[in-house]
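Hey, quick one: can you model this chain's 3D structure?
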Amino acid sequence: MGGVAVAVDSQQFRGGSLHVTMGEIKADLRRAALAGDEAVLELALPMAGVELYVPSNWRVVDEVSPFMGAIEDRTEPRPDAAGVQKRLVL
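Sure thing. Here's the predicted structure for all 90 residues.
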């Protein structure tokens, strides 16, 4: 019933998982770079919440089925200078 904040600055980010029960996690990925064009972040959040901060050239793909929760995507994805847009699949 608490919270935690993490920052990821990996330049070879491949994805991962976040598991929280009855709490909150803030994950800042804005300094990370994907190893490829796509990464998968698995979420397990029973009665919990997560705030994700992603780089502007990432597009968040929501494949989450919320239970006792909600998903709100506030990103404004923009391709980088080369026109590339990476994908973070939840």
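One thing worth noting: The chain has a mean pLDDT of 88.
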